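Issue 218. Parser rejects a valid record. Input:
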Amino acid sequence: MKKQNNTAFLAQAAVIAALYVVLTLIANTLGLANYSIQVRISEALTILPVFTSAAVPGLFAGCLLANLLTGAAFWDVVFGSLATLLGAIGTRWLRKTPYAAVLPPILANTLVVPPVLSVVYGLAESLPYLYITVFLGEVLSCGVLGILLYRVLRRHGLPFPDFE
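Output the parser choked on:
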């Protein structure tokens, strides 16, 4: 990559991170960013690795910052952010099939977040409930909103330069 491409890559990742943080803070004001019921509007951005590799570090950094800013517990910050990173990598890997590309963040967050919430917030008896609520929130935000975002970006021709 040329220096110009490195700068563009970092700028794009930073913008995606900032969008993730702002959208999570909006969801947080509605009580939807953390704990047992999560419908983070920001999770719709997990479709962006279909368009650009810069979205992978951008989503990870955005999730990490958002979790810190919304007061999540330490292990929730760590593992929730890692789940987003795994989901973003999976989405990037499946970028040629965008409708399948929403599955990695849904699965990563559904498998990682409920046990973390259960342990960190003392909700062990609520684990089945947490699996259901996190899964439904991820389907709504990554699946439904993510596909809507994908279709809007494709329809309006908003290109993202890719850095491969």
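Fixed in the parser; the record now loads. Residues 3-155 form one domain.
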